[in-house]
Automatic annotation (TrEMBL):
Family the UniProt entry places it in: Belongs to the glycosyltransferase 2 family.
CDD domains (alphabetical): GT_2_like_c
GO molecular function terms attached to this record: glycosyltransferase activity
PANTHER family, alphabetized: GALACTOFURANOSYLTRANSFERASE GLFT2, RHAMNOSYLTRANSFERASE WBBL
Gene3D superfamilies: Spore Coat Polysaccharide Biosynthesis Protein SpsA, Chain A
Entry annotated with the keyword Transferase: yes
Native source species: Anditalea andensis
Highest taxon in the source lineage: Bacteria
Domain Glycosyltransferase 2-like: 5-117
Keywords of this entry: Glycosyltransferase, Transferase
InterPro entries, per the entry: Glyco_trans_2-like, Nucleotide-diphossugar_trans
Record-given protein name: Glycosyl transferase family 2
Pfam families (alphabetical): Glycos_transf_2 (PF00535)
UniProt keyword annotation of Transferase present: yes
Amino acid sequence: MKAAIVILNYNGKEMLRQFLPSVIKHSSADVIIVDNKSTDGSLDFLLMSYPQIRIILNSRNEGYAGGYNQGLFQLGDQYEYFILLNSDVEVTANWDSTVLSFLDDHPEVAGAQPKICSYINRSYFDYAGASGGFLDMLGYPYCRGRILHTVEEDLNQYDDVIEIDWASGAGFFIRSKVFMDMGGFEPKFFAHMEEIDLCWRVRDQGMKFMVVPQSVIYHLGGGTLSKADPYKTFLNFRNNLFMLYRNTTEIRFLLIFLLRILLDAGAALHMLLTHGKDHSVAIIKAYSEFLKERRVVKKKPYLASKLSFAPREKKVFSIIWTYYIRKKKIFSGR
């Protein structure tokens, strides 16, 4: 079969109630729900309202990474493409077929994402993905349309199809064989940055990820963890270190790590002043757990000779420096 839209659910009945109708209406691919042991009545709602939808029941909640691994490995090679879609996303007409047609025509491309705009402020890009994701040379992620705290208005300025460093997990297209061959997501991540890590590993195999902005979706965001939750801060900082550690050589990681300690100490101070001590402490805890658990997160069987980021003209050494010192706060202004 061609493609499966796979939505991971954990106690998200209200999100499914609100957003699933648009997915059913505007999608050509099969829709499958992977449930992470929900206890809020999600399953009863699905069985009553959408009896035609296939449901895969996970034995426990292992987050985004482990939850999707459990579900997608059950599907195996039944589908040519997996489309991972957050439960808090509204889709538009032909959103999936547009990207699938592109992938059919470009066998060298492993996966892609649509243009992701904000569900709340619909003329603006979404924080988590915008029009394609990138990494600076220190491993900090940013997007075409969103750099750090600045989210741009969508004026069709980023509507060209280009190669990207990473595709957002909010709307993540990938060839099923690639996902299976790469072993899926690293489950230790639990949630956040596992898709960036997977994209990095895939690109080291010589395959590409692209953004196809002719496909548009609208993401609410914060459906599982809001920005106000210190646990989200913890996961983002810890997983970013995990990602760097497992995808770079020891020497390269050490050099990056020393710079990151300084920059993230500044981030902790900023969090203390703007968000309170809980977020600042979360960054310290992230470093502590990384140092304790880094050996559990296995390195690749091989490592590329250089950081495998996007084409050279897209590389930025430090998006922090670019944003705060050079005052370049939009993607086209880098």
